[in-house]
Amino acid sequence: MGDARRRRRRRRRKNSRRVPAREGDIEAIPGELLELVFLRLPSPAHLIRAACTCRRWRNVIAGDGGSFLRRFGSLHGASSDHVVGHYRVNERHGHPRPPGLNPVFVPSSSSSSPRADAVAARNLALDFLPRGEFGDCGWELADIRGGLLLLFHSELAPGLLICDPLRRCYREIPRSAWFHGCHMLGAFLLDGEDEDAAAGISLTNFRVTCALFRFGDRNARACAFSSAGGGWTSGAARSSTPVCRDRELAPIYFAGSTKRVAYWTVGDNVVLALHKDNAELLAGVLLDDIEYAVLRDKRHATEYAYQLPWPPTIEACVT
């Protein structure tokens, strides 16, 4: 009986001498064990957040030629685009351009860790973009495609840029001479024309289609930019069309967008349609009052889903 008491006392003394694990001790965890932990994450969105946490975790996830990402994809059946979160914008009613002012990243609600949410929000913030003369941001979110963002600024030059928030880098798009004297109705991001590129869109392989309105002659105009050619073109033959013949300028409102076509209403009975792929603008009379009401009263989205293709383009950090 006495021996049992002595053993219990020795165990208590030994446990009391233990020093709590320091935060830096996590570096001692082998990479193979970290991989086993990461493989148990419930979704690709959680994996992206883990890669944003620190240099070592990013290297474990992105290293070895992407073999871990392939293992994770085969285990979880990740074969399509996945939503990491949303870019929330300031809502503006009655505006001719999609209301995307001051986009702020909001992580997906599927995350189980508030700290992971904070890490994702910090790493996907757009605070690396150029700022105005007084330090203001003022960028408008024009479109999202393939993990890239197209942004527009009405005052800064060149005014259009495409950025990769995950890598925190961007590429400026030169202004077209056609922009002079025109108001931007909308800009849309499309896959590039480089057939040799492995991905459909990247910072070096993309297209942009814009819809413009010239107050002088009250014509709408479409133009397109391709990274392959490095310049702007007029697109289709019908790239410019009159949309307002009355003495008074009819109000123009953005009415929504599909994958291929964007719509605006002009006054009470005209709809303007932009075919994004060939940069063609068409104006026509609305069929009836019901069709007009559907387009005119459609509320703008205030959150734009940020999707990443699978496998995600995560690069290991250089040590």
Automatic annotation (TrEMBL):
Q: What are the boundaries of the region Disordered?
A: 1-20
- Gene3D superfamilies cross-referenced by the UniProt entry: 1.20.1280.50
In this chain, composition skew of type Basic residues spans 1-19
The family database entries (SUPFAM superfamilies) matched by this protein are listed as: F-box domain
Please give the SMART domains that the UniProt record associates with this protein.
Answer: FBOX
Q: Record's superkingdom?
A: Eukaryota
Q: Where is the F-box domain?
A: 29-71
What is an example of a Pfam family matching this protein? F-box-like
This chain belongs to which protein, by name? F-box domain-containing protein
